[in-house]
Amino acid sequence: MPKTNKNNMISFWRVVFSYLIILLHLFNQYFHITGWTIGVEFFFVVSGWLLAADLKKKDRTPYGYTWHRIKRLYPEYFLSFLVSGIFFLVFNGFSAKDSLFWFETVGFRELLLIHYWPWQETQIANVVTWYVSILVLAGLLLYSLCKRLPDITREIIIPLVIIIGLTFSYRVTGSLVTDYYGDFIYSQKFMRGFMEMGIGILLFDFNEKYSEYLKNKVVQWIGFLMLLFTAISSYFYAGKVEYFHLLLISIGVAIAFNTKLPFESKLLAFLDKISYSIFLNHVIFRAYIMPKYFESLSAKVIVIYIIAVTAFSIVMYYLSRLMIVGIRKLQNA
Fold this sequence. Notes:
The protein is an all-alpha fold. It has one domain. 75% of the residues lie in helices and 1% in strands. It is built from 12 helices and 2 strands; from the N terminus they run ααααααββαααααα. It has helices at 8-29, 38-57, 62-91, 96-111, 130-148, 150-173, 189-209, 217-236, 241-256, 266-281, 283-293, 299-332, and strands at residues 180-181, 184-185. The chain has a two-stranded antiparallel ribbon with strand order 1-2. Helix 2 runs parallel beside helix 9 (241-256), helix 3 (62-91) packs across helix 12 and helix 10 (266-281) crosses helix 12. The relative contact order is 0.17.
């Protein structure tokens, strides 16, 4: 078991929202719609927070930071691409010729993490990987801006992007997650990721500036309760309420993420460690396996799904670690 994360408030919510996202997709498969897409907003905000923390603690170049992120993210991503790609091609009845054509036109972009830079591909093998693609590109741009133009970026560029992005999204689509407007299909995912990671950067700065005041336990638990309310409320409501939920997430992160939960848990630390694998690998169960064997949603289906995704994600996580060890041995040979 890994050591318990010192800041296990982040670990706790990362695990919670990971499971809410995989449940969201399972429920969608059975036409039970929730607003748990807000979990993606949480992860973008937290990614911006961690980017700002890296800026403060490490002396990296923007490309050094991006390479560091790719080394962390790509091994599990690659294995997930292989497995989800096989399921995608087999279940869609692609011939060998069709499969090669798909890879040459779409698949190679997904493999290289550029399938949403900033265009939008529709026939990708693993639909959730758009998040990783945006995370890498938006992270590179934000890190570059914060490194080269720190004051202008934090005081002008990021606030301006937030104002324009939220205004456009609210007035045009009325939802943070909508990609469709009339008959024109466009992807606002890059704006969404860049904007919300920017929010995370500003929240980190706020937390650093007012850390003495935020050590108050009452304040920290108010932040915890805001995140808890968002997790529960978003099950029932979506649409324009997402902007309110994003506000609650932002406040909760700003005032609660410099504290620890009142308990230590090796299980929590372990689930946090595999949460990225859970996010990447749940799609094959949601899209292919569960609908094939279960016609309707039930408590039994939910439990089986959670256990199956978690178990498979553990296997994939450790396979990715073995792959990393193997690559290092080859490099040192």
